[in-house]
Amino acid sequence: MLNSYWLDANMSTDDVWKKICLAFPILADNECSRECPEDNVLEEIKELKLNKCIEDIVICRIEQIMRQKITPDFWSRFSERKTEIGGFERFKDAVDFLYNSFSNFLPMLENLEKFRTISRINRVIYGEETLLGTFKVIVTSTLLSQLPLTHQIITEDFYKVSFKVFCNADKSDVDQDESSEDVVQCGGCSHEIEQCHCQAILLVFHETNRKLIELDLLERLAGEVITTLIHIRIENHVQESCKGSFDTSYISSLESWLSTVVMGWLTHIYNVNAVSTQSSIKKFHQKISHFLYETYTRTRIEQLFNIIIEYPDSQPAVEDLRICLQKTDLRLYLTQKLQRALETRLLHPGVNTPDVLTAYVAAIRALRQLDPTGVLLETVTLPVRHYLRWRDDTVRCVVSSLTEEGPSELADELVRGEALQLDEGAPSDEDMTNWEGWNPDPVDADPSKTSKSRRTSDIISMLVNVYGSKELFVNEYRTLLADRLLSQFTYNTEKEIRYLELLKLRFGESQLHYCEVMLKDVYDSKRINAHLHSDPNFKLDRQQFPSTAMILSAQFWPPFKEETLELPDFVKEHLQIYTKAFETLKGNRTLSWKPHLGSVNIDIELKDRKFNLTVSPIHATIIWHFQTKNQWTVEELSQLMHVPATVLRRKIAFWQSQGMLREISTDSFLLVEESSTRSKCPVPPDMVCEDEETESAMASAHDQREEELQVFWSYIVGMLTNLDLMPLERIHQMLKMFASQGPTAVECSLRELRNFLDRKVREHRLLFSGGFYRLPKS
Amino acid sequence: MKVTIRSWTGVATWRWVANDDNCGICRMAFDGCCPDCKLPGDDCPLVWGQCSHCFHIHCIMKWLNSQQVQHLCPMCRQEWKFKE
Ligand SMILES: [Zn+2]
Ligand SMILES: [Zn+2]
Ligand SMILES: [Zn+2]
């Protein structure tokens, strides 16, 4: 190659080569000689007119040395180590070696640069204009091209050890009193305190980083490791700080931790010449600050179910999360996580309905603080609402906790009062006066709902909306009220009247009219009883026991379960006298007794015992019959009392538990006239029969509704027989026209109808395809 | 054994002793009340005519007031006279 540039015929090839080697000893030598050639040597070579070519040869040689000697040597120091400190030493050693080798090249590079100047070479090699720049590229690329698989272990060791020392130094500033006499080991370097190496480690750390920065290698070699270390450290710190405690806000303490401890360490790494690294430190701060928020947000989201359960004690945690959600992009993550948590922890049969409701109420409150627009609440709790709708006793639980004695969130909420807002209502006008304060709904909002309905609907409304129908809710309240009135048999209705007034404020006068009549019935009964008993003309005073009655207006009470009971003649006579008295008082009106309902106070006298008990009519009747005959079979009693054997057996169990009856053979019971010593159970006098069943006398709302819907079924079958195919909306319209007239009008929402029809489809009594319902071909 | 009943509180529903369930005028149950009333029984009583038909008192009064010429029972078209 040299031949083509050959100009001076007097010089042999060897001579030329020697001359070049004299200027750049590196070409001949394996070592970088530090000697600088004389200026005239460079001038002489310049005359050879081989300028670029020579530069190429030298650079090529540098690359060769880097590739074959320095880089393998450098990486060989990253081999296995026993301890972290060992790794730390190796890393330092390697960097020192590299730095020294690098420095050795510098005089030669200077020389080459000089040569460049005198021979007026202007060129860019590897994107760098200066030879030093080019050289750094060569160093970096050669190093990276031979990167061993395990290099990170040593790098990690180096930064881990120093970070530990650094954190320890910071910590001992904070809680000095804690690091008292029993600490023998230094928390930073793990040496005994007396021989603490921390100071030395920090010095080495500082020096090594300075060298890496000078070599432009810090980012390339350690950037990833540093970031990972910081992330791990942040994760651990967040976990430690806020595990299990929701009653404190952590944002500011986390932030200050980040800017003192973590940023302090980073500054320590970079702060070699502050000006040039300031911007990269700032960038780093932003990045890890974002990471901190994300980590904290994720942690809180993981805990969100528990946070909700502990609400309002967990208010600070919710507030933190609210702020964090604005700074991160984790809304969707929150929705998914919380929904899953709700599903696994709440929505399964093992959790009873009141607990689901309590959690739901807490969720409403917490999520409303988290997102005042209500969108989050709406989306996240959708499965809860679906689930509650499916549970049989939901309405009953809501109603009973609404009107329950003692502290109950819902009862408080009811007292707070406010007209009920149901979603069905027409979209209300947005408030125009405060238009400047308007904010758009979040992107995940359901566009079919007005933002106002989301923002303002209160907890009770949300619960009622679970069912979407006030009627069903009010019906269930009516059943509950009926049960309460008929189980207590006190004529004291003051409290119920107060609740009714509160409910009227919410549900409206007309919805609760029936309940008003029921309460009036109880009040009137009290007056009628008093009246009948005070006037001797009614002959009630001559009775052997006082009979009183709860007189109900049947049209206004929920339907009763159909049950029969044949009372003892003795009792029937008494009730007939009462009926006569009522007829006399009211004229043209009479009574129909519900013999199985009521409350009876009886004295029982046995050979060795005496009780006074308050029991139900059926219990009283059973024991009454044992006066005439001390042994009965269930079958005999069933015929006499007109009560099914299964029911009887359950009721007899009560008397067995009292030690009064004994089963001598299957379904045959004997009166225990004298209690043997072993079964001498002391029954407290004046006890009230706490029946095994506090079961409802009313048909459940669910049963009632089913029955009502059955009315529709015959209409629907009729329509489909005539019209063959019908879509849901059409069926609904037709039903509205035909089925909901007359005194027993039944309302049925579109949704309810769909559910009903879908159930019929499941039962194979209807077919559904392409949006149309039809009857199966019979 | 001796069982002594000290007191008996029963449950009963009241009803009008009438030969029909619903009022022939408003079609509502006699044991309920007429469309203008809220409370049944004493507040919305029944009356009987000499023809033996009976109605909510408020219903028959409204009916009679709307009749210009003659007061007839809306069921049997006989002259309406209150039963003594
Ligand atoms: Zn009427
Ligand atoms: Zn009336
Ligand atoms: Zn008549």
From TrEMBL, chain A:
<comment type="similarity">
    <text>Belongs to the cullin family.</text>
</comment>
<keyword id="KW-0833">Ubl conjugation pathway</keyword>
<dbReference type="InterPro" id="IPR014786">
    <property type="entry name" value="ANAPC2_C"/>
</dbReference>
<feature type="region of interest" description="Disordered">
    <location>
        <begin position="423"/>
        <end position="452"/>
    </location>
</feature>
<keyword id="KW-0131">Cell cycle</keyword>
<dbReference type="InterPro" id="IPR057975">
    <property type="entry name" value="TPR_ANAPC2"/>
</dbReference>
<dbReference type="Pfam" id="PF08672">
    <property type="entry name" value="ANAPC2"/>
</dbReference>
<protein>
    <recommendedName>
        <fullName>Anaphase-promoting complex subunit 2</fullName>
    </recommendedName>
</protein>
<dbReference type="GO" id="GO:0005680">
    <property type="term" value="C:anaphase-promoting complex"/>
</dbReference>
<dbReference type="GO" id="GO:0031625">
    <property type="term" value="F:ubiquitin protein ligase binding"/>
</dbReference>
<dbReference type="InterPro" id="IPR036390">
    <property type="entry name" value="WH_DNA-bd_sf"/>
</dbReference>
<keyword id="KW-0498">Mitosis</keyword>
<dbReference type="InterPro" id="IPR016158">
    <property type="entry name" value="Cullin_homology"/>
</dbReference>
<dbReference type="GO" id="GO:0070979">
    <property type="term" value="P:protein K11-linked ubiquitination"/>
</dbReference>
<dbReference type="Pfam" id="PF25773">
    <property type="entry name" value="TPR_ANAPC2"/>
</dbReference>
<dbReference type="GO" id="GO:0006511">
    <property type="term" value="P:ubiquitin-dependent protein catabolic process"/>
</dbReference>
<dbReference type="InterPro" id="IPR044554">
    <property type="entry name" value="ANAPC2"/>
</dbReference>
<dbReference type="GO" id="GO:0007091">
    <property type="term" value="P:metaphase/anaphase transition of mitotic cell cycle"/>
</dbReference>
<dbReference type="GO" id="GO:0051301">
    <property type="term" value="P:cell division"/>
</dbReference>
<dbReference type="InterPro" id="IPR059120">
    <property type="entry name" value="Cullin-like_AB"/>
</dbReference>
<dbReference type="Pfam" id="PF26557">
    <property type="entry name" value="Cullin_AB"/>
</dbReference>
<dbReference type="InterPro" id="IPR036388">
    <property type="entry name" value="WH-like_DNA-bd_sf"/>
</dbReference>
Automatic annotation (TrEMBL), chain B:
<keyword id="KW-0479">Metal-binding</keyword>
<dbReference type="InterPro" id="IPR013083">
    <property type="entry name" value="Znf_RING/FYVE/PHD"/>
</dbReference>
<dbReference type="GO" id="GO:0097602">
    <property type="term" value="F:cullin family protein binding"/>
</dbReference>
<keyword id="KW-0862">Zinc</keyword>
<comment type="pathway">
    <text>Protein modification; protein ubiquitination.</text>
</comment>
<comment type="similarity">
    <text>Belongs to the RING-box family.</text>
</comment>
<dbReference type="InterPro" id="IPR001841">
    <property type="entry name" value="Znf_RING"/>
</dbReference>
<dbReference type="InterPro" id="IPR024991">
    <property type="entry name" value="RING-H2_APC11"/>
</dbReference>
<dbReference type="GO" id="GO:0051301">
    <property type="term" value="P:cell division"/>
</dbReference>
<keyword id="KW-0131">Cell cycle</keyword>
<keyword id="KW-0863">Zinc-finger</keyword>
<dbReference type="GO" id="GO:0005680">
    <property type="term" value="C:anaphase-promoting complex"/>
</dbReference>
<keyword id="KW-0833">Ubl conjugation pathway</keyword>
<dbReference type="GO" id="GO:0061630">
    <property type="term" value="F:ubiquitin protein ligase activity"/>
</dbReference>
<dbReference type="InterPro" id="IPR051031">
    <property type="entry name" value="RING-box_E3_Ubiquitin_Ligase"/>
</dbReference>
<protein>
    <recommendedName>
        <fullName>Anaphase-promoting complex subunit 11</fullName>
    </recommendedName>
</protein>
<dbReference type="GO" id="GO:0008270">
    <property type="term" value="F:zinc ion binding"/>
</dbReference>
<comment type="subunit">
    <text>The mammalian APC/C is composed at least of 14 distinct subunits ANAPC1, ANAPC2, CDC27/APC3, ANAPC4, ANAPC5, CDC16/APC6, ANAPC7, CDC23/APC8, ANAPC10, ANAPC11, CDC26/APC12, ANAPC13, ANAPC15 and ANAPC16 that assemble into a complex of at least 19 chains with a combined molecular mass of around 1.2 MDa; APC/C interacts with FZR1 and FBXO5. Interacts with the cullin domain of ANAPC2. Interacts with UBE2D2.</text>
</comment>
<feature type="domain" description="RING-type">
    <location>
        <begin position="34"/>
        <end position="77"/>
    </location>
</feature>
<dbReference type="Pfam" id="PF12861">
    <property type="entry name" value="zf-ANAPC11"/>
</dbReference>
<comment type="function">
    <text>Together with the cullin protein ANAPC2, constitutes the catalytic component of the anaphase promoting complex/cyclosome (APC/C), a cell cycle-regulated E3 ubiquitin ligase that controls progression through mitosis and the G1 phase of the cell cycle. The APC/C complex acts by mediating ubiquitination and subsequent degradation of target proteins: it mainly mediates the formation of 'Lys-11'-linked polyubiquitin chains and, to a lower extent, the formation of 'Lys-48'- and 'Lys-63'-linked polyubiquitin chains.</text>
</comment>
<keyword id="KW-0539">Nucleus</keyword>
